Amino acid sequence: MNEIKAINTTYNGYKFRSRAEARWAVLFDALNIKYFYEPEGFELSNGMFYLPDFYLPETDSFFEVKGILEELDKQKIEQISEDLKRAITIGYPDMTFEASSNYGEGDWMLTSKAESWLCRCRKCGKYFFIGNQGSWACTNTECGFYDGDNTSAETYFGDGDYWAVSTTSEIYKAFNTAKQARFEHGETVNLKPF
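Now predict its structure.
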């Protein structure tokens, strides 16, 4: 069987392994989400090795881009989350995503796309990924704001549906910018103004 190979893509000084990864970086830049690309690999407690695509320092979490979430990938993602006690979000080429939800002391579990959110905190104004388990606090390490179910100023669901997001909001525009990003023939991505 012929395997389709992803196209390496250069953006913002990084050489990404795929255009999907570069598009997620465009989204992070558009929303001022700090990231590091493949900063460190890990040997997991079960003997597997894993190199997460992105580290998001403001939420002390990982973001992994997958075309298809294979069983081995899922095992590695669950193991690194358990070993390092950190949330992980899986992003897909169509700009949908699945985020982790914290069910206890560092017990992060992947939720469905429909239960995953990208939110902007009402207090600090920063964006964070979260799996929906009801009430939650801002996951930014410097904030942690909690106001019941009203923590989020605007939200985008992981399955691609908008909720509490107008077409003039930053999050709506950022997703559209990332989806439309082209890297062929030296084209550059225009992040501002929206």
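Residues 9-183 form one domain.
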